[in-house]
Amino acid sequence: MQQEVPMVTDQYSSVFHNLNGDKVRVGQETARQKLLALSRNMKGVLSLGRGDPDLPTPSHIVEAGCEALRTGKTHYTPWAGLPELRDSVAKKLRAENGIPVTLDNIIVTNGAQEAVYLTLQSLLNPGDEVIVPEPRYTPYDRAIELAGGRVVPVPMEISDRCLLDVSKVEEKLSERTKAIILINPNNPTGSLLPEEAVRSLCKLVVKHDLVLISDELYEHIVYDDKKLFSPASMPEMFDRTITINGFSKTYCMTGFRVGYVAGPRDYIDAILDMRYTLSISAATPNQWAAVAALEGSQQCVHDIREIFRKRRQLVHEVLSEHHIEIPEMDGTFYAFPRIPASSFASSLDFCERLLTDVNVLVFPGTDFGESGEGYVRVSYLLPQDQLMEALKRFALFVNGVR
Ligand SMILES: Cc1ncc(COP(=O)(O)O)c(C=O)c1O
């Protein structure tokens, strides 16, 4: 017998419909879950799958969290977050990113992930379309779908670089397009969209009266002399850009769950009410730890990046030596190598065989959208010696099946 769907309001009923229908893939095992389940029953797996930095959180940040606990900072903060943290974030955004904000433009969230959800819930109406360059960080899909929106992927060109062709974005615009998501540097490809390309994308956003969601979570994990360009620093973009960022990657603070959203007051005020409904505020001691992260010495950021830079060089050396094609790795701790697709039914099939044959875990490119077929995401979050071993196994496996 078919279950009756409770009717609440239009907005909420769309969520119930989603759960009963196929808009959100509830209950389906993802490729990632399948591989993780498989690896749990195996011994000695070298994981190049994780997205959680393996390095410890810098000690002064941990100590600030402990000190907050010891001194009774164990109650709610204002919904928008600790004023001290919002002020530090605003200072950072002005100084490093050129975004003219004050603490009133900032809401602290439980990780950037909650910022993604809150932003899309407050921005989208059912039926709105959101353009997402692909390969893409797919948790955005679920947040878009739960808000009643529709994901419109725009495949990037993957060759020696990952490039977003702005004319392809324009082709996908429709009357329902509400927003474009830009994750820069990109998870999973590790590519950084240069300033010029960001500016062209912004022209399109202005021309078509859209909103840009700029996810800058990996901004400090950028190598060589490259630097992220923040779209909200452009005067014509400020009123139409929502910037999402956090502490998870830059300061190895994934478990602290602190992120933030920054934008013009009307968007921020709309998010605030929903923010209260979801979890009132982020954990208070963790917000104090985040204050210490921003206000303390930034030497730790350089040190962490330097470790990732050396590993990235190793990835580049081993894969190039074995003639495995890999797009330029400008930032993050991910690489997106091409695999010999013709020898496998799919990139998931490749990952399963790699795992069972040589005990190395990577995730299939299709976990990041259809156009990721033929690629895998390799993260370099292992100590140098284990990374070397895992890369060698990966490369020998690829060459063995070519
Ligand atoms: C692009 C991107 N945005 C957001 C998130 C969520 O991060 P957080 O740990 O701050 O919630 C991630 C996590 O991997 C990510 O890669």
Low-confidence stretches: 1-21
Kindly, what is the distance between the CA atoms of the first and last residues, rounded to a whole number of angstroms?
A: 52 Å
Number of helices: 14
Within the largest sheet, what's the order of strands?
2-10-9-8-7-3-4
β content, as a range? 5-15%
What is the global morphology?
globular
Helix content: 40-55%
**SSE ordering:** HHEHHEHEHEEEHEHEHEEHHHEHEEEH
Bound molecules: pyridoxal-5'-phosphate
Residue-averaged pLDDT, rounded? Answer: 92
> Mind describing the biggest β-sheet?
7 strands, mixed
Summing up helix and strand content along with how strands pair, one would put the structural category as alpha/beta
What radius of gyration results from the CA coordinates? 21 Å
The count of DSSP E runs of length 2 or more, i.e. the number of strands, is 14
Account of the protein in words:
Helix content is 43%, strand content 13%. α2 (31-40) runs parallel beside α13 (347-358) and α5 packs across α10 (265-279). The protein has helices at residues 10-20, 31-40, 59-70, 83-97, 111-123, 139-146, 166-171, 195-207, 235-238, 265-279, 284-295, 299-321, 347-358, 384-401, and strands at residues 46-47, 106-109, 129-134, 150-155, 157-158, 162-163, 177-183, 211-215, 241-246, 259-262, 334-335, 360-361, 363-364, 376-379. It is globular and about 55 Å long. The strands form 4 sheets. The chain has a 7-stranded mixed sheet, with helices on both faces. Strands 11-14-13 form a 3-stranded antiparallel sheet. The protein has 402 residues and is of the alpha/beta class. β3, α6 (139-146) and β4 form a beta-alpha-beta unit. Residues 51, 111-113, 116, 137, 183, 187, 215, 217, 246, 248, 254, 259 line the site of pyridoxal-5'-phosphate.
